[in-house]
């Protein structure tokens, strides 16, 4: 690519930021009038409303304005029509969208939810954006370009020991309770503190920004992590590679944080047991 040629990552970053912030404004309007929403259950403790669908449709329109031919994988509409839940696999190229990550919070009136948008080539994220419409913060990264919050460069902490760490955790009925219980017990026994914001993407953004030292969840989906994992890595952190399809329909374990904490996770918990 010549010095004068457009940078594809920069162009997609501009699109993703615009789409995420527009989507965030729409999500906030729904949030402020959520008593009018019809809520449906996709499964145990897995809710959806018209807000999730309309926000995703807005994101798809914004992407199509600039990149009409790009493939889009979204939580609500998959890669095509409603009900298409294809995860795309490790070799997928295209956008990965979670219109409202933290739907349970959203529907219960808790202002802790975000919009998450990533772009991948051959399964590797090149652009990631997480927008928090409640705090008015946008986190983003491009491959090799560093990680930012509203234009300010961000970095993970220097935490290297569990006894000094504050760790985000996640839980859902889609995994066996003992998986969660044994890991939480191991972390607490090691002296760590835990936080559960019930929003995987914001916990990843908080790791990148040094608000958490690491985050763990035994069962997440592609759209939960695609943007956040890139932002963490570009902020100097690391993570166990997320592999869609490893457990259950398109689910895998998430662990991301400071490099010094990852080996301690491996040695002090059984979270990587198959």
Summarize the structure.
By secondary structure, the protein is an alpha+beta fold. It is 34% helix and 26% strand. The protein has a seven-stranded mixed sheet with strand order 3-4-5-6-7-8-9, sandwiched between helices. The protein has a five-stranded mixed sheet with strand order 11-10-12-14-13, with helices on both faces. It has a two-stranded antiparallel ribbon with strand order 1-2.
Number of helices: 7
- Compute the average pLDDT: 85
Helix content: 25-40%
Strand content: 25-35%
Q: Look at the helices and sheets and give the structural class.
A: alpha+beta
C-alpha-based Rg, rounded? 18 Å
- What's the order of the H and E elements? HEEHEEHEEEEEEHEHEHEEH
Task: Report what the structure shows.
The chain has 274 residues and is α+β, with helices and mostly antiparallel strands. 34% of the residues lie in helices and 26% in strands. The protein contains 7 helices and 14 strands. The chain has helices at 8-32, 50-66, 103-107, 177-189, 200-208, 222-234, 259-268, and strands at residues 39-43, 46-49, 72-74, 94-101, 114-121, 124-132, 137-142, 147-149, 152-153, 166-169, 193-195, 214-221, 238-239, 251-257. The strands form 3 sheets. Strands 3-4-5-6-7-8-9 form a 7-stranded mixed beta sheet, with helices on both faces. The chain has a 5-stranded mixed beta sheet with strand order 11-10-12-14-13, sandwiched between helices. A two-stranded antiparallel ribbon has the order 1-2. β6 (124-132) and β7 (137-142) form a beta hairpin. α1 runs antiparallel to α2 (50-66) and α5 packs parallel to α6 (222-234). The protein is globular and about 50 Å long.
């Amino acid at each position: 690519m010549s010095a004068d040629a457009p940078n594809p990552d920069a162009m997609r970053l501009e699109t993703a930021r615009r789409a995420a912030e527009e989507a965030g404004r729409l999500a906030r309007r729904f949030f402020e009038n959520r008593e009018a929403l019809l809520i449906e259950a996709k499964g145990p403790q897995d809710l959806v409303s018209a807000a999730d669908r309309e926000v995703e449709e807005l994101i798809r329109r914004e992407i199509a304005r600039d990149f009409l031919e790009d493939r889009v994988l979204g939580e609500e509409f998959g890669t095509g029509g409603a009900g298409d839940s294809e995860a795309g696999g490790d070799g997928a190229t295209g956008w990965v969208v979670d219109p409202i990550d933290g739907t349970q919070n959203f529907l219960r009136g808790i202002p802790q939810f975000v919009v998450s948008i990533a772009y991948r080539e051959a399964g590797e994220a090149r652009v990631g954006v997480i927008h928090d419409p409640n705090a008015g913060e946008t986190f983003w990264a491009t491959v090799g370009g560093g990680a930012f919050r509203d234009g300010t460069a961000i970095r993970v902490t220097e935490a290297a020991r569990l006894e000094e760490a504050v760790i985000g955790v996640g839980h859902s009925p889609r995994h066996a309770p003992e998986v969660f219980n044994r890991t939480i017990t191991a972390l607490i026994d090691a002296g760590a503190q835990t936080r559960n914001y019930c929003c995987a993407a914001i916990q990843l953004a908080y790791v990148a920004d040094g608000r958490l030292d690491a985050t763990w969840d035994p069962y997440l989906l592609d759209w939960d992590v695609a943007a956040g994992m890139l932002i963490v890595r570009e902020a100097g952190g690391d993570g166990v590679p997320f592999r869609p399809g490893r457990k259950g329909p398109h689910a895998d374990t998430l662990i991301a944080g400071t490099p010094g904490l990852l080996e301690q996770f491996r040695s002090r918990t059984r979270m990587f047991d198959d």
